[in-house]
Amino acid sequence: MEKPKKCISVEKAKQFEKKWVETRGKDIENGEGYPDTREFWYSLDELQEYLDYVREKSKEQKVKKPGIRIYLGAYPQTNDKKSFSTIFLAPTKEKSGNSDLETEEDGDENNYEIEPLNDSTSGHPPKTY
Predict the structure, then answer these.
(1) Which of 11, 26, 58, 89 counts the highest number of beta carbons within 10 A?
(2) pTM of the full predicted structure?
């Protein structure tokens, strides 16, 4: 199998994380008063199960080009838990009335008829890449 075209090098990934930690990470830590998580983990089986679910539900809806958009979020703070960051994966579908002039990314809209995926595992404190 060939490497996907959108893969990046380990070095570039480390640069991205370092930049995030030095900028946004510091701002969040200063604002919240504690280091936030910045990495999230799913098993391949969990991801594949969800991708299969989105593909099947999309097929039932006659969605030709389903996709996944990844959102940042934060859990609500409670008396027992801090408001740590989270991510959720949201299914997308092609925009109705999509023209040939739009790119796939421009035409994608959220598919609110399929539930997003959450409940990943994350590091407290975060693991450095």
Answers:
(1) 58
(2) 0.84
